[in-house]
Amino acid sequence: MPIIGHIIKGFIDVRDKLAGTKNPVEEQEAVLEELLKKAENTAFGKHYNFKAIRESNNPANAFAASVPYFDYNRINKEWWQKLHDGEEDVTWPGTPDYFALSSGTTGKTSKRIPVTNDMIDAIRKTGVEQVFALSNFDLPPDFFELGILMLGSSTDLNKVEDHEEGEISGISASNIPTWFRGYYKPGEEISEIEDWDERVQKIAEEAPNWDIGALSGIPSWIELMLQKVIEYHGLEHIHEIWPNLQVYTSGGVAFGPYKKSFNALLGKPITVIDTYLASEGFIAFQARPETDAMQLSTDSGIYFEFVPFEPEYIQPDGSLSDDAPALKLSEVKEGQDYVLIISTVSGAWRYLIGDTIEFTNVERAEIKITGRTKFFLNTVGSQLSVNKLDDGVQELEGKFGIRIPEYTLCAKRIDGEFYHCWYLGTEDSTEDTELANALDESLKNANKNYRVARSKALKGVKVVSVPPSVFHDWNGKNKKKGGQVKMERVMGEEKFKEWEAFVNP
């Protein structure tokens, strides 16, 4: 009988009931006040007069009026670079103990994003809140005695002068609470292996020794790990070796495109819980089973603002125009795409994280990620965000009974005419012309701007099917495998030339 599991489950249930009803708007007001107060005497706080902002009649409005938008390049050039020059109290008190390396989906060069002890505490706090929210998912007591396999970056961080560097998943895993270490797999020794293929090989070898109840990681890399374990042990599906696997916490990208290929690796259905952990902080997690939307972490060191995702506010490089309006949580509406802006306990201020979101429930502050500002395909007026592209690909999967876990595309000029050129990652065989026609019709039916573009400047759609492994190899060549690495869904023409040269050497 799972006695410990009953105790843990009982504690979670009671704690969740005692927590009371959240008020995200009030929590955000308190977070902004705390951020401004703590950073008031930093160089950044003095430059933008945080003291006067705090003492104003409306601190949120004064903050938005006084502090400009920053993307990574701007805040790094103007402020964070000073940290690497040895300065203290730049955008947050003291100096950060960590820098999160993030190339994301946009290039080979890693960004170096400060991660303070306050942020480590905030990430841990949100993680604990997510654990407590498991009471909503009606999991059996024995679940709370099983191992949790977290597949992220290596926890063997690089020591650089007075700080350590690594991807946020590696930094987070290296700071897990002591009480959690008994549940954590693959354990510290394997987690420190830098080479991703070697780490996954060790996981496959050790898999029979673990009773895994939950998985956590980016879908594409979790899939590859599961495939390796299945292949290594000659299995039909992963439940043959981990029969008690019940939960997968997805993160980094939308799970939808991977759902069909992921489920093919299972022997029975499991609960999928979405999370939103970025290099800049733990932003949101799915708190209820009746929705796949995620609840913003409104009380853990991150202040959110929301810019309506309209073409007139987005620059060609994905940054925001200076006059783009920012809304508070109390001002947003459901069903509208917004560019997400954050200010954090790591000293990011009015920071363009690069993601677009949509509110599904304003009262609960629940959101879905809808895309990336740089992956907004509007070259010929088609106005396609990543969620629209995902929907089109998933419709193809349903129509043809195939699996397409990866894709990328470009608005490419061919003989002076624009075409949307798609590469679909699939192991299944379907005529590319059939896929192109079906994809074109799907997007016409779903998006009026795309339909108008197809009647004017957008000449047509081309599709090339390639094995999904090509996408993994591309990421391995350009960045590295595993961790926070994600495939770029939309490429510019220059990057697309590199991609096509890689696919067709």
TrEMBL record:
Coiled coil: none annotated. Pfam families: GH3, GH3_C, GH3_M. Residues 298-362 form the GH3 middle domain. One of its GO terms (cellular component) is cytoplasm. GO terms for molecular function: acid-amino acid ligase activity. InterPro entries: GH3 (IPR004993), GH3_C (IPR055378), GH3_M (IPR055377). Residues 389-494 form the GH3 C-terminal domain. PANTHER family: GH3 DOMAIN-CONTAINING PROTEIN. This is GH3 auxin-responsive promoter.
